[in-house]
Amino acid sequence: MNSKLLPAVPLDDVAVDAVDLIRAFRDAGAVSFQDQPLDQSRAAYEAGCAANGVPFKALERVEDLYCEVNGGSIRLRHYRPGGNDSETARAVVVYLHGGGWVIGSVETHDRLCRYLAAVSGLDVVSVDYRLAPEYPFPTPLEDCIAALTFVSVRAGEYGWDPHRIIVAGDSAGGNLAAVLASDPGCTVSGSTIIGQLLFYPVANLLHESDSYARITDGFPLTAGSMRWFRSLYLADPQFARDLRVSPGLRQPAELAEHGAPPAFVVTVGLDPLADEGVEYAGLLARAGAPVEHHHLPRHSHGLFTAAGKIPTGARLLNRAANWLVELTD
């Protein structure tokens, strides 16, 4: 922990079911993502997700598929739960993992996606989009559009309904999901996004909200972490003005004209992204989207990839899965 920064949020302000993880993080030196070499940061994130994630769920089918993209192919992991033998085409969740567009993979979010599939009964397709700094903006977003196209074009083969797609993601993945749901340029012909599941999304890389000043140290994701991720994702800082980077810059009328699908949004108070996430939920509501917004003031970023250790995360993940069921019934 860098003592030159503002003091960390005291542990007394952290939720009871999350405080042990934050205490252990601080006792180990409070090394945030930007405080170590990139390869170590990626490995540490994978290890943390594996150690703290929800219990492993066995499913009827889990398979890796490959989707063509500009310059090669990317991996998609398809999760199919059992118990749905209907010949009716099924709704499908396209999940975009978090990690600041820099770390994370289908492996880090494997348990989370299995859990969503098992509890909701829906197919989930997790996207292993290419990462910055090797592949900065717009490549990760373009990979997600390619994955959405794959789901639409191959829907008949896998029993999906291309007009019942839900985009979902946490953190940077929540940003990508929000962009897919809001940007007319990301529309894939022959498909319809009917919902968006956004866990503590990045909504605005142009303006730092007040929560950046509140969360400067003492947590895995800090204001410094976000500035590091931003610098690696955006080759040109001016890209932060692009609505495909900062969907929170849109006006309600723009979103309404495009058609803002129903949203399930979770924000956490001990997070540099807290304020922009709350603002984005409000923006969607003003655009006419039905929004179910949960704000947890005493929890921190990464709640769902640590839901195996934080009961509140598991309960809210169950609620998210039930929202998917309600949306698609």
UniProtKB/TrEMBL annotation:
Transmembrane is among the record's keywords: no
Every Alpha/beta hydrolase fold-3 domain range: 93-304
InterPro entries, sorted: AB_hydrolase_3, AB_hydrolase_fold, GDXG_lipolytic_enzyme, Lipase_GDXG_HIS_AS, Lipase_GDXG_put_SER_AS
One Pfam family here: Abhydrolase_3
Annotated keywords: Hydrolase
Molecular functions (GO terms): hydrolase activity
Catalytic center residues: S171
Organism domain of life: Bacteria
Family label: Belongs to the 'GDXG' lipolytic enzyme family.
Protein name per Swiss-Prot or TrEMBL: Alpha/beta hydrolase
